[in-house]
Structures are given as C-alpha cells and as structure tokens.
Amino acid sequence: MSWLPGVHVAPNIQSDPALYEVENRALDRDGHITAAMRHIAPWNDRVVLDLGSGTGFWASVFEPDARHVVCVEPHAPSRLMAAARIAREGWTTVDSLVGSAAWIPLRDGSVDLVHARFAYFFGPGCEPGLAEVERVLAPGGTCIVIDN
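Now predict its structure.
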C-alpha cells in the first residue's frame, strides 16, 4: 500500500478483517442510519462509491437499488474479501478496486453518491482526499460520512 497516497493503517480492519465483519453486523441493526442516508440521497439507479469499503459489507445495502456500486479499498486482504463477497453473491453491478481517498480510480463526475464509513481521511492533511471526492462526484452528488 505504500504506493497509494494518503493511506493510514486502520487497526480494526487491517489486523483482523473477520472481526471487522462482526463489528459491521452489530451496527445499525434497526436500519436507522440506512434510512437516513436513503432520505438524504436516494441511490436508486445511481452510481455509488463505497470509499474505504473494507470487506464490502455495506455494498449489500446499495446493490439492490443502485445502478452500480464501486468499492474502493487500499487494504489488499479486505479488498479480496470484498471481491469474494461480490462473486459469492453474484452481484454483477458491484466492483472492488484498489484505491484510497487520495487516489480514487474513477473518472471525474462519475459518481452520484460517496459513502465513507470509518474511512478516516478528514483530519489534518485531508485535503487530497476531499479534493478526490469532489472530483469524482457528479454535479448535485452527495458525500455521506458515517462514523457511528
């Protein structure tokens, strides 16, 4: 990952991606956060970027309704788990790509919704990640950051 700009170690996922799965299953069990996101920025027939997607856990929220979901993750073991999930579920409108907040491998203005959950690129020095989000968002697009 050293070649990717702006990557910082996230101990919870990078030391134990399986435990990260358990943590995600424990979050938003009643769907309140998902409902609030859908109210703010419905993703029906939209392109969703799950930035810092980890194992692709949250792609399952977007996949049934989105036109396409792109999972971007710098951590190879997590990204491979996401790719395995995509294959296992038979999702044909979900991809898993290598990237970081500071280097998103997508065209300018190609994304309607950016979802960043536990993707920490908002502290000092965060400007490259924020610029990348702004670059890939289509006019009128939305970025939702969740740290619950």
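The first strand starts at residue 47 and ends at 51.
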